[in-house]
Specification:
heterotrimer; A alpha+beta; B alpha/beta; C mainly alpha; A: alpha+beta; MetI-like fold; 2 domains; four-stranded antiparallel β-sheet; two-stranded antiparallel sheet; C: mainly alpha; 14 helices; Amino acid ABC transporter permease (chain C); transport (chain C); ArtM/GltK/GlnP/TcyL/YhdX-like (chain C); MetI-like_sf (chain C); membrane (chain C)
């Protein structure tokens, strides 16, 4: 790509390069040197200013603060964290919180979005209208406003913690969030998790075997039923063998708050609901256009070949629709992940919020912002790479 | 008309270029015609705009005192409201000349954040506010409580330290904006609101729907000396801010206030003559008008006046002098001598 | 559904009622299968439980625009007194009260410019001139200082004019930058291409908040000692950088849709690169890219609400600050509903416009 082989008027005969501006090859090189030079110059200007400013105002630099004790508390965390831990670990807590809300949000938004997208195509006028109203309202209101609304809904409209709603035994709903009974600590849960993992591997292996057998002999193996049986059966077996523990860890109001059980904070609820609702409206549109894009003739052709409606959907419609759906769906997933940074505004401790606290406490703004950007770039690139891989896979299925 | 428009546009865009590097803040300020001061966006008693956009508060008055010292005009000043997060970058970068935003003096801020702190204008400490209905009498009873705290403050760190030291656990709700923290507390999201005691008093007086429903617990868990700050690298500007704050304290010690300052101009006391610039030397050393101290007292008042009109017993905050009384009255406010 | 009756000399007859008419419509659209019938009934039940209380809250038991907060707190439905009290604050922010006709006029100018630009008959070079005049007028109105207008610092700007300024000016400046980036990305000069791809992907890979953070806390350190740029301008720059990357992708889509023959024909005519681009490729590519560009603008318009995070009070920010007034705390439904409706009207009309434009352009393409 470095040389332009096209020749135009005024260019010398092919083969020789003259050092004249009328030669496109030479001109391209000059342009590139100029552009790169300008960028380098601006970059150098900014960096030298920054270094000068940092030195002049004796602001600390470097990432050594990551090793220091953070000494601030974080409201919720997947891993153990206390103010004794380092800034590095605090940041990790933030990254995990971001991933948690993004992954759950993506799953929920996909399910809801797909349902609404299908509903928009429903032959039922009422349902189609309702779904399109949902889409048109949700996607034309800023996500931040929706987030504020959900957060205010919980913190202003639910009762105080002492008068918590108690719709089911052990379930409490108050402006401090939702408490549900948790599972008491028992080795059985670990056993069940292992059994589930084994079942996943087993299902995968079984499906490969079944495909191979179908290719060889033409016999169809009831894969769906077998897989489901494995995935449910093995953990259930582990549960029964483990002695079927039924003890639950019930939340109890002790002192200021509920203790025990599993808690869902209002911040997490607000950010999850906000992201899910907002993104589902966009996913609905993606799904709808994906389904519309598959020609009706495809369905008729599959019927003519004698395929039942299940395989028609699975083998004919879905692969083609997915081909249209996956690229825009990827960008919606990326948007959801990036929008999770809005958590800062309502106090959910995501990575932006924790990096923000860190940069306030240490005064090292450049390092803080770089860490935010670096992490998001990594997440974005990983999602892109995975979805590109998936896209290639389904593209192969089609032809 | 066109040049006026251009000037207005240029002023509004505020791409301010200083005349050279280093010790130039005073020149920049003079050239620009006003002091740019970073203040709290909304803390009654310290930095708070009224509905007409006029700024009031103790921190604001020290900004005005500096404007008087430089220009002999308390209105040659512009205020930039800053959040806890924005304050350090704003002063580091030169967006503001002076940061007077209830900022605690700490070693980290003095060194790695790159600030120089003027004398302390308010000796404070961190406290807790709870709803009376909870019946809590002491901070030691707060085990397991949900605590609302503003992020990026020393408060956030002291809170963790205090609970750790007392073997208690807490559940932090950390929010960036002061307004949001208060809103979360008053909505009932948290049991406890924590910040400097003065800030709690201001919030209770100015923000609480019913001030009497809330009680500030007796424990003060930290030292929070609040002081105006300037950035490293400009000693002259630092001196001006430092000795402007000192003027207000020294004036109170001499018994000079904005009403009686004229009577002292012809005082026989050589200390006072030097102080008010009747005998020259002090102002010039700072690069200011010889009568800058007189101007500051006349137009901004002495420390006691500034305290009383913003946070004193006669205001909604109802704060006593306490640690902020003069050293001669058992407090900590003490000015180095004008000599 | 087209039921044409052949004319064979007999008078027209109404089609049978099982094909047209309300009953047939109901049967075809709501009760065509047993599960649709069940769904319809369920949805109707749901609507019956949700909608009437909402309408009651919204209108019937609501307090009027002159209600005080005490009256509202006594009970009843929506408290429009909140909007009545805070309307000017939400719309104009902290702009001096007596001068608020200026931001109002600004809003009117912006809307007029936007609506005017939607009409394809006005897509002429003089439209640019109209925009220049309009934006100058906006600048004069907001800043003041000339024609006897009191100067108003931009720290006092807020509400809807701030939202419009950030989005419209951001768009206007980002547009040419986006064209350059899109051309650079498709350039066959590797260095230029790499730079443009890096920039676009870098910006698109990070959340807008991190760019605003950069503008707010990092950017000041990039400048030479003693130089500072005010907060609004820094936020505006962040928005421009952000918008340029996304718009560049929309324009690239347009460029890719141009058949190769167009490029070859232009080359064959001996046009230079810029002649080729300005006269042949871009006019076609931009026309194709307009619908995605409008969509980018819609999301950009919504994203301006993020400036609240760096302490600027746009429409959403003002709506939120209005809620922090102790005497009006808790009326968040009214505030967010009001602000949400304003955003919605802007975004919805733009998205409808973009759909219409897409149809029109498709029609002319098919021609």
């Amino acid at each position: 790509m470095a040389t332009e082989t096209r020749t135009t008027q005024g260019a010398p005969a092919p083969g020789g390069t003259s050092f004249s501006l009328s030669d496109p090859t030479f001109r391209a090189i000059v342009y590139q040197i100029l552009v790169v030079g300008a960028v380098v110059l601006v970059g150098w200007f900014l960096i030298s200013n920054t270094l000068d400013n940092l030195a002049r105002r004796s602001i600390a630099t470097g990432y050594s603060f990551l090793e220091r004790e953070a000494s601030f508390g974080i409201g919720e965390s997947i891993i153990d964290y206390s103010p004794k831990d380092t800034y590095g670990r605090a940041f990790l807590v933030g990254v995990l919180n971001t991933l948690k809300v993004s992954v759950i949000g993506i799953l929920l938004a996909t399910v809801i979005g797909t349902l609404i997208g299908v509903a928009r195509l429903s032959s039922n006028w009422l349902i189609a209208k309702l779904a399109s109203t949902y889409v048109e309202i949700i996607r034309n209101i800023p996500p931040l406003l929706q987030l504020f609304f959900w957060y205010a809904l919980v913190s202003d409209s639910l009762p105080p913690v002492r008068n918590a709603l108690n719709p089911l035994p052990g379930v409490f709903l108050s402006q401090r969030g939702l408490w549900v009974p948790g599972l008491s600590h028992s080795p059985v849960w670990t056993m069940m998790a292992v059994a589930f993992a084994v079942a996943v591997v087993g299902t995968f292996a079984l499906s490969r075997w079944a495909k191979g057998r179908q290719a060889r002999t033409g016999q169809i193996f009831p894969m769906a039923r077998a897989g489901l049986g494995l995935l449910i059966g093995l953990p259930l077996l582990a549960y029964i063998l483990g002695g079927m523990p039924t003890a639950l860890d019930m939340p109890k109001l002790t002192g200021f708050n509920f203790v025990g059980g599993k808690a869902l904070s209002p911040e997490f609820f607000a950010i999850l609901t906000g992201l899910t609702v907002y993104t589902s409206a966009f996913i609905a549109e993606v799904v709808r256009s994906g389904i519309v894009a598959v020609n009706w003739g495809q369905t008729e052709a599959a019927r003519a070949l004698g395929l039942p409606s299940g395989p028609t959907l699975r083998l004919v419609i879905l692969p083609q629709a997915l081909r249209v759906i996956v690229p825009p769906l990827t960008s919606q997933y990326l948007n959801l992940t990036k929008n999770s940074s809005l958590a800062l505004a309502i106090g959910y401790p995501d990575l932006v919020s924790i990096a923000n606290t860190t940069l306030n406490q240490t005064g090292q703004a450049i390092e803080g912002v770089t860490m935010i950007m670096g992490t998001y770039l990594t997440i974005s690139l990983s999602i892109s790479i995975f979805m590109n891989w998936y896209n290639k896979r389904i593209a192969l299925v089609e032809r | 008309m066109k040049s006026e428009l251009l000037a207005a546009a240029a002023a509004a865009v505020v791409v301010t270029v200083a005349a050279g590097a280093g010790a130039a803040t005073l020149d920049t300020v003079k050239q620009r015609g006003f002091v740019q001061c970073g203040v709290n966006a909304g803390l009654p008693g310290f930095g708070n705009p009224d509905s007409a956009g006029n700024w009031t508060g103790l921190d604001v008055d020290f900004c005005r005192a500096v404007a008087v010292a430089v220009f002999n005009d308390p209105n040659k000043i512009k205020f930039t409201p800053l959040s806890a997060q924005q304050r350090f970058p704003a002063i580091q970068s030169g967006e503001v000349d002076l940061l007077s935003r209830n900022t605690t003096v700490t070693l980290t801020r003095d060194t790695s954040v790159g600030l120089n702190f003027a004398p302390v204008t308010y000796y404070d400490g961190q406290g807790f506010m709870v709803n009376k209905k909870l019946g809590v009498k002491s901070a030691k009873e707060l085990n397991g409580a949900t605590v609302c705290v503003q992020s990026g403050t020393t408060t956030e760190l002291n809170l963790a330290d205090y609970f750790r030291a007392n073997n208690m656990s807490y559940n932090p709700v950390v929010i960036e904006s002061n307004d949001e923290v208060n809103a979360a507390y008053f909505a009932g999201r948290c049991d406890v609101l924590t910040t400097d005691v003065s800030g709690l008093a201001g919030t209770r007086a100015g923000v609480a729907p019913v001030p009497d429903d809330h009680v500030i617990l007796p424990e003060v868990i930290s030292k929070e000396p609040l002081a105006p700050a300037v950035r490293h690298g400009d000693d002259q500007w630092f001196d001006i801010v430092k000795w402007t704050v000192n003027v207000t304290i020294q004036a109170e010690e001499f018994g000079i206030n904005s009403k009686n300052v004229d009577e002292f101009v012809n005082s026989k006391n050589p200390d006072i003559q030097r102080f008010l610039g009747t005998s020259p030397g002090m102002g010039k050393a700072l690069g200011l008008d010889e009568k800058y101290a007189y101007n500051v007292i006349k137009k901004a008042g002495n420390y006691g006046e500034i305290f009383d009109r913003n946070v004193g017993p006669g205001t909604p905050l109802k704060l006593e002098r306490g640690l902020n009384a003069l050293w001669t009255k058992g407090g900590l406010q003490y000015s180095a001598p004008f000599r | 559904m087209t039921d044409t009756v052949k004319h064979v000399g007999l008078p027209d007859e109404r089609p049978p009622s099982n094909i047209v008419g309300p009953v047939a419509w109901l049967r075809n659209n709501l009760f065509n299968t047993w599960y649709n019938a069940i769904l319809t009934v369920l949805v109707l039940l749901l609507l019956a439980t949700a909608v009437p209380p909402f309408i009651t809250w919204l209108f019937v038991t609501a307090h009027g625009f002159d209600a005080t907060s005490q009256e509202c707190r006594a009970g009843g439905g929506a408290c429009w007194g909140f909007i009545g009290e805070k309307l000017r604050f939400i719309l104009f922010g902290t702009f001096p009260y007596d001068e608020q006709w200026r931001p109002l006029l600004t809003i009117v100018i912006f809307i007029a410019l936007l609506v005017g630009s939607c009409d394809r008959r006005f897509w002429k070079p003089w439209l640019g001139l109209v925009w220049a005049v309009g934006l100058t007028a906006v600048g004069i109105l907001m800043w003041g200082g000339v024609f006897g207008l009191t100067p108003v610092e931009n720290t006092l700007w807020g509400g809807l004019p701030l939202t419009l300024i950030l989005s419209v000016i951001g768009l206007a400046v980002a547009f040419p930058a986006a064209i350059l980036l899109a051309l650079g990305r498709r350039s066959n000069m590797p260095a230029v291409k790499v730079l443009c791809v890096t920039y676009i992907e870098l910006i698109r890979g990070v959340p807008l908040i991190s760019l605003l953070f950069m503008a707010s806390v990092m950017f000041p350190l990039f400048l030479p000692n003693g130089v500072s740029v005010d907060k609004l301008l820094r936020a505006q720059v962040a928005f421009i950088m952000f918008a340029a990357a996304y718009m560049a992708e929309a324009i690239r889509g347009g460029l890719q849709a141009i058949p190769k023959g167009q490029y070859e024909a232009a080359d064959g005519l001996g046009l230079s690169y810029w002649q080729k681009m300005l006269k042949i490729i871009l006019p076609q590519a931009l026309a194709i890219a307009i619908p995605p560009l409008v969509n980018t603008f819609i999301s950009f318009f919504k994203d301006t609400s993020l400036v609240i995070i760096i302490g600027l009070y746009d429409l959403l920010g003002a709506g939120k600050v209005a809620l922090s007034d102790p005497s009006w705390r808790g009326f968040y439904r009214e505030s967010y509903l009001f602000v949400g409706v304003i955003y919605w009207v802007f975004c919805f009309s733009m998205s409808k416009y973009s759909q219409k434009l897409e149809r029109d352009l498709n029609r002319s393409h098919r021609r």
